[in-house]
Amino acid sequence: MSKIKKRLVMMLCLALLLSSQAFGAGIIMKIPFNGLDAWSGTLNPSYSGPGSVDSANVEFFAGSIPGPNATTGRITPNYTTFGTTHQYDKMDQNGGTVYIRSWDGPPRTQKSYYGKSAGMASASGAQPANQYNVVKFKTDFLADVPKNAPVITSGSESNQRVGYTSDVVLKLSIAFTYDMGTPKIEATTYDVKYWVDPETEPADNDVNRVVNISSTSFSLPDNDPKTSNPFSSGTYHFKVRANNWYGSGPWSTVKDWTTLAGGLTGGGTVSYVLKAGINGIGLPFGGSMNISVNGGAPVAVDSTQKLVTAIGGVTAISVWDATSQKLGGATFDGSGNVTFQTPGYDLNSPLNAGAALYISVGADSSVTLSK
Fold it and tell me: Is the domain of 27 the same as that of 63?
């Protein structure tokens, strides 16, 4: 082969190498025509062509997909067609993750349906471009206000000590779930409305009684925003609603919770956090109940002595007797043996609902009572 022919072959190979989409950083995404499975169950006829980025029913994002009304992080790949396949490539996308959002209806418009792909990694450095064959999208999300109300599933209560003082504050928490429904409607935040008897239900815009959160759990703040005082015993009421880019959904049904001062009727579950030192709690139930310490197996208890034994590490316990208006109790050594007991106080006396107990422990522990 002559030098001229060799040089031509080398130049041709170099040109092919430089023009190839398979080498260098980037990402290639191939989508067949009519690859959009619309929520109605029929294929979106407008999917036969991509159109411009602003009017297309497919969008590409780097890093994450924003809300359905936003274009934050959107990128613009090159577009070609091969037979009945759309091909999008972004060869200067050096690493990171790319997502696709597809639309059935006007893009970024309320009441339109949309679908979201899983993340696709883009190649980086000198690695060959990553190629993905996207078979079909299902637009199973709806860009609209939440239709479902959250469901409050549980509540818990504890008396927590303030720092290294003997003061305790009420901690009351709820947990809830949100079902996106069918089609799926996303929630971005939640509003929790709460009030305590004898208050009436506050307005939706009450800044002291309606709190916006991003998680599916809520605890009363350390101090009541309305009075600036710590929360105290009583009956509390909770409602929750879901929010997103288009507005707020319906409120949940009310969940009521009566704190330990009056006890819980009909049984239930109550949790405490005992801090090292002195803790004040109220018994939610009377008679026999189950106790679980630090997530351990429940143990049946029906007296102060059994309660002390089950908790473990108790150095002192005292109970206020409302009838005699006296405080009785006992102290214990490291093995749980009684070292002092006030005259007339019976450690084997039954547990009474609403009784105020003062318990001193050597180490932090979590305690759950149930009946």
Answer: yes
Which residues on neighbouring strands pair with residue 58, listed in sequence order?
102
d(CA 254, CA 83): 58
Judgement on whether residues 285 and 231 belong to the same structural domain of the protein: no
Same structural domain for residues 172 and 99? no
C-alpha 291/C-alpha 306 separation (Å) is 10
Among 92, 119, 142, the domain boundary falls at 142
Q: Do both 244 and 131 map to the same domain?
A: no
Please give the DSSP secondary-structure letter assigned to residue 116.
Answer: E
84 lies in the same domain as 103: yes
Residue numbers of the domain that contains 42: 21-142
pTM summary value: 0.63
- Identify whether residues 29 and 108 lie together within a single domain: yes
Can you read off the two tokens belonging to residue 2?
A: 């002559």
Model confidence pLDDT, tens digit, residues 51-86: 333 345 788 999 999 999 999 999 988 888 777 777
Asked if the structure places residue 8 within a domain, the reply is no
Please list the residues that pair with 13 across neighbouring strands. Answer: none
Neighbours of 74 (CB within 10 A): 15
Query: DSSP state, 47?
Result: G
| Backbone dihedral angles phi then psi of residue 149, each to the nearest 5 degrees | -90, 145
Specify the 3-state DSSP secondary structure of 17: helix
Q: Considering its fold, how many domains does the chain have in total?
A: 3
Task: Report yes or no: 141 and 114 within 8 Å, Cβ to Cβ.
Answer: yes
Considering just the CA atoms, what is the radius of gyration of the chain in Å?
A: 32
User: Residues 6 or more apart from 227 whose CB is under 8 A from it?
Assistant: none
- Nearest by Cα to 242 from 161, 118, 148, 127: 148
Tokens of 34: 């009519």
pLDDT of residue 164: 60
- What are the two backbone dihedrals, phi and then psi, of residue 281, each rounded to the nearest 5 degrees? -135, 165
Helical (H) or strand (E) element with 61? strand 58-62
Q: Are residues 227 and 340 in the same domain?
A: no
